[in-house]
Design a protein that fits this description.
Layout (H helix, E strand, L loop, with lengths): L4 H4 L2 H8 L24 H12 L4 H14 L6 H12 L8 E4 L6 E10 L2 E11 L7 H19 L3 H4 L4 E7 L2 E9 L3 E10 L7 H28 L2 H4 L17 E3 L5 E3 L1 E6 L7 E6 L2 E8 L4 H9 L6 E6 L6 E6 L5 E2 H4 L5 H20 L2 E2 L8 E5 L5 E5 L6 E2 L27 H14 L2
Parallel strand pairs: 3-4
Antiparallel strand pairs: 1-2, 2-3, 4-5, 5-6, 7-8, 9-10, 10-11, 11-13, 12-13, 14-16, 15-18, 16-17
């Protein structure tokens, strides 16, 4: 029998459920439990974070949020009294009633939801969990489990919404005068990220704090209204009559489904597969009008170095790179290298002569980079592809130019995999040098003879 959400949320239970190879969901606890960032699944979450910083607040909203701070800072006799106080406040702030919700599968009940009915189907826009004060059950974990149960219920009902969306939902938990807002989706897996956490304690005379909290709750109100519009689009009667499929695969991938080409023409993207999901790479095989491409999401990328390597024959063609609005991410579209293999996948199958010839080609390409004052930064077998041409000669292509740049100026990221044989002088956020590149690639040659 499955645990109730409140039982799951006790520390001894959620640790058991999440600290293993198959966690029930990914919510960054423990830190290894993460995957595709949730701001890549739906635009509403990135816009919410942006609005939390720069929403233009009105005095009417500021007065109402000030009332919320006063109310949630108060002492309540019990859990239900705190819920009732929030419900009374919320009905004047949003266009939704904060009502309880009972699951049909197991009769568990959520403290509160903001919901909408579309063609007689109930969709939860926001899930609330309340605690009168601190509790043995973690409110964040409890809200996460409620979303998991909600997804299970939609699956049992064979809901049409599963065919078209990743079920974007906000989770709000309030424990005493503290709160948190998270987002949740069903993408490649159930993924939940904490967006905002803070205090609802009224800070007398601190107008900047009141403004900050007003931006947060106005941003939430706007975001939930946008979710309402989003779901309405998919729940129109004509969409429900469309051809039924077990699950539309595109809904489980990031929201980027088109981009502008260099000539400003709109290009549609169809996701085909994810590459190296086991290592949580944000790299996908996609199609554009039937043509295979590689799509990558990254926070850093050096297009100058990539283009230099392409022009010298040892990188795939870079087709498009651009920022994704309201996120920290860029998307990179590049040529799909048909017939090429990642070096780490083929090295052990090669004979000595083939290895020596391939090694020579790799070092020649790396020398061209270094002679032009460029460094790669992560020149491992996993980031080099190769194939034999018609003359039985190796063609080498470098990939993954996230950290690339000028020698002594490019920098390593905050997090480095300790299992990689870095040069002894490599440091997090440290400068990248040619010596580091040479050491790394030769470490792979030496240990993979």
């Amino acid at each position: 029998m499955k645990r109730s959400a409140s039982t799951f949320a006790s520390s001894q239970n959620w640790v058991e459920e999440l600290d293993n190879d198959k966690p029930v969901f990914l919510n960054c606890l423990p830190p290894k439990n993460y995957d595709i960032p949730i701001t890549l699944y739906h635009e509403v979450f990135g816009e919410f974070l942006k609005d939390c910083k720069d929403f233009n607040v009105k005095n009417e909203d500021k007065n109402m949020v000030n009332d919320l701070l006063f109310t949630m800072s108060s002492v309540f006799d019990n859990h239900n009294a705190r819920i009732d106080a929030f419900r009374e406040w919320a009905k004047n702030f949003v266009n939704y009633d904060t009502t309880s919700y009972k699951f049909n599968l197991n009769n568990q009940e959520i403290d509160g939801v903001w919901r909408r009915e579309y063609n007689k189907e109930t969709i939860l826009l926001t899930i609330f969990e309340f605690k009168n004060w601190f509790s043995a059950s973690d409110p964040y974990m409890q809200a996460c489990m409620y979303f998991s149960r909600y997804f299970e219920e939609l699956c049992t009902k064979k809901s049409h919404i599963l065919q078209h969306t990743c079920i974007p939902t906000f989770l709000v938990y309030i424990y005493g005068s503290y709160f948190g807002i998270a987002d949740a989706v069903m993408g490649q897996s159930i993924t939940i990220n904490l967006l905002v956490e803070g205090s609802l304690i009224l800070r007398h005379g601190n107008e900047s704090w009141t403004n900050q909290m007003t931006r947060v709750f106005c941003a939430l109100r706007k975001a939930v209204d946008n979710l309402d519009k989003y779901y309405k689009k998919f729940m129109k009667s004509e969409n429900l009559q469309a051809e039924k499929k077990e699950m539309k695969i595109q809904a489980r991938y990031p929201f980027l489904k088109k981009y502008k080409s260099a000539s400003e023409e709109s290009v549609d993207i169809e996701y085909v597969d994810r590459i190296d999901k086991e290592n949580k790479k944000l790299v996908f095989l996609v199609k554009e009008s039937g043509i295979k491409r590689i799509l990558k999401f990254t926070t850093l990328y050096n297009s100058d170095v990539h283009n230099f390597c392409f022009n010298n024959g040892f990188a795939p063609e870079l087709i498009k790179i651009d920022n994704i609005e309201n996120t920290d991410f860029k998307f990179v579209i590049m040529e799909h290298l048909d017939g090429f293999n990642v070096i780490s996948d083929i090295w052990d199958e090669l004979n000595v002569e083939e290895k020596n010839e391939l090694k020579k080609r790799i070092l020649e390409a790396l020398k061209i980079m270094h002679n032009n004052d460029f460094v790669h930064g992560d020149i491992r077998f996993e980031n080099i592809m190769a194939k034999l041409n018609s003359n039985n000669k190796w063609i080498v292509k470098f990939i993954d130019f996230d950290w690339s740049g000028y020698n002594g100026k490019a920098e390593y990221p905050q997090f480095l995999n300790k299992e990689i044989p870095w040069h002894k002088d490599v440091q997090r956020l440290g400068k990248i040098s040619r010596d580091h590149d040479n050491h790394l690639i030769n470490s792979y040659f030496n240990r993979c003879r």
